[in-house]
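Dock glutamine; give full complex structure.
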Amino acid sequence: MSGNTKYIFVTGGVVSSLGKGIAASSLGLLLKQRGLNVVLQKFDPYLNVDPGTMSPFQHGEVFVTDDGAETDLDLGHYERFTDKNLSQKSNVTTGQVYEAVINREREGGYLGRTVQVIPHITDEIKTRIMRAADEDSDIDIVITEIGGTTGDIEGLPFLEAIRQLSFELGKQNVLYVHLTLVPYIKAAHEIKTKPTQHSVRDLREIGIQPDILLCRSERPLEDEVRNKISLFCNVEKEAVIEALDADSIYEVPLRFNKEGLDKIVITKLGIDCNEPDLSQWEEIVRRIKAPSEVVEIAVCGKYIHLVDAYKSIIESFIHAGAANAVRVNIKWVNAERVEEDGATECFAGVDGVLVPGGFGDRGIEGKILAVKHARENGIPMLGICLGLQCAVIEFARNVCGLDAGSSEFNPDIEHPVIDLMLEQRSKSKMGGTMRLGSYPCEIKKGSLAEKLYGSLKTSERHRHRWEVNNNYRKILSENGLIFSGLSPDGNLVELIELQSHPFFIASQFHPEFKSRPQKAHPLFKGLVKAAIEHSVSPAGKVRQKMEQDK
Ligand code: GLN
């Protein structure tokens, strides 16, 4: 099927954090497995132009696409579920929409007319929805998730735009899916449908009648409850879909399929296609749920109070764990705590250490201590972006004996082993001025990186301003640091590793953005494998025993 793109809109009601991103991704996967060409996008109703400048403490991880867009973390789910690389077209914010409209107004593009939310903002929104299918004329379905919760003032222009689209494109081409909460009230021993009724009423008030309701609930929805929701919300009973809490997010598509979600969608949209082939996905879920063995890996960062800040890292560990038939327990270690309590105490018993990316100098010394501890004690270690920079600083200080640091944290440092790239020096804006997106990397023959990737080339996603300072490459390598990945022109360091260590590798790029449940990322897979080996090694056993004796 092609040529006639259909549009599915996913909205959310009652409360936030119901998992709209997972719901949209799951539907995307089910339709893809039916042989349809699906693309997902997210509309965020905030005024930031992109989440790039937003604090991970508030907003969670910033996900980066191949083309260098800094996007909402839900795009990570979209990519992982549908195994499709997305682009900047897949994340649109109110800020972008207004920016485009205001720029056009300044250029005289509106020929003196009054520029208004309706129709100008809504037209821009509609253009951007349609744009998702622009490049690829074979897109069968665009799934658009509308961020926020029904009833939010900010969301209104988006809802108005998607209402208009059904009118313009025809009902048979547009479908509204509404994710809602059906809470269980303990004191009354009852499941309550009223919040859902209200949320649907809000939608209907603005002219949107949901076609399908996804009902998040702790308890199964009895027939009676389904009937009630169906009647009061004006949604067919078969289209009232139960969405129970799942052990793993990867199980959600399978459950939706059992509830008949994808069948209803294609029936309502009049699409003729195959039954979905879910065998590979079932196998993935089986592998994720199967392991009884556990390895513990410490993640030493500063945003650990909001684990959403490390969403893709968490998912990458799930993929890498499944690939190695273990479950990875993440021990969250606050980098600032390492400075106070020392690395020996903070990392007791762990079989691996990951130092993730980050910005700003808080916790830096703790991260450097974490790297030192892993390096000196033969604990498997993976550094990512800032993690690589900390590893280089640590090596320069403690092995090469330099008073080393990064000019990001101390512009006057004697040996800036991490320094700003020349082209970054002139930039004063914060948004969109980093080295962003996919860049090729050439891997050194005979390195650990080559063993892990099974290749001498890769391409990985970046999000940073600072780089390894080439003036120090000689002294660092003379002392045993291996630059195992470089940009094709040899100018930028992409991977470093240590020879005399069981597993010590760090990347300037973010491998976590490219890990998929179907294919764990080689660096994560390698770290988990090394952690398993470490856990059964004498060093690992002694550590675990010490932990038990405490
Ligand atoms: N702050 C560092 C830089 O900008 C590292 C960024 C990151 O870890 N993503 O280079």
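Observed: The first strand starts at residue 6 and ends at 12.
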